[in-house]
Amino acid sequence: MRFFRIIAPVCAGILVCSAFWGCAGGPAPVEETPSPPVSESKPEPEVSPQIVDGASAALPAQPAADSEFSLQPIDRRIVYQVIEGGDSLKKLQYYISETVTLVQENVMRSIEIRQGAGLRRETSATGQIVIQKETPGVLVNTFFDSDKRRILAVSFDETSDRNTLFFREDNVSRRFVLMYDAKSYLTGYGDRQYLLNFNGDVPHLLIRFSEEKTSVPSERVVRGRFLSTEN
User: Fold this and answer.
1) β-strand 186-189 against 51-52: which pairing, if any?
2) pLDDT value at residue 117
3) Which of 12, 57, 75, 218 has its CA 20 to 30 A from that of 225?
4) Is 68 helix (H, G, I), strand (E, B) or coil?
């Protein structure tokens, strides 16, 4: 009996609480924590060419790469085409076709007195100037010799315009070949004479060339011919 006296009030309390909880509509719903938005990768905006007066703006012209040029000998025909076109030969960049070595030997002589006797001394100093193959140069002057052949004075020396080599138009190839004495192999360089050394062909001048071809189409429609009434 004592057990029933204890358990009965407990069960009644449980029933009352359950009824009250049901009337209140149950526990409040738990709000879900929103997940962070997924970042979508946006494509890079396309850059369209700028339109100026209804036309695409042209990009600035880029200088031609060295691979687009080839070195070719300059000859009489090219020289006259340049001059007749109203340009100056000094606007061209020149190159030498072969490596040349200019040798100069200076001999110094003196007499010394040693122990009452004369001593003759001789000292030689050798200097070389090397101009490598395809070294660039600029035109300093141009003139004609007594045979009316054009001579181009070109300087490959970055220090002075006075240090020039002279190239004259050849009668056969029409190229401008290096001038030197065929017997002594001496050539002028600046205000001095040097012994010339080179291998291969006689050095001559080269210039850079690129090709540009333009095609101009022309069309004429032939209508045909009819017999004349006299036939």
Assistant:
1) unpaired
2) 87
3) 218
4) helix
Indicate the pLDDT class of residue 191, thresholds 50, 70 and 90.
confident
What's the whole-model pTM score? 0.60
Per-residue pLDDT averaged across 135-163, rounded?
95
21: phi > 0 → left, psi -120 to 50 → alpha, else beta; which? Answer: alpha
Q: How far is CA 165 from CA 8, 174, 197, in A?
A: 130, 18, 14
Note the Cα 45 to chain centre separation in Å: 33
With 0-12 CB in 10 A as exposed, 13-18 as middle and 19+ as buried, what is 76?
middle
CA angle 17, 23, 24 (to 5 degrees): 90
List b or e across 28-63, with b for residues whose CB sees 16 or more CB atoms inside 10 angstroms: eeeeeeeeeeeeeeeeeeeeeeeeeeeeeeeeeeee
How many Å apart are CA 87 and CA 49, to the nearest integer? 37
| Rounded CA separation 93/138 (Å) | 6
Q: Residue 231: what pLDDT? A: 62
What is the per-residue DSSP string for 92-139? Answer: SPEEESS-EEEEEEEEEEEEEEETTEEEEEEEEEEEEEEE-TT-EEEE
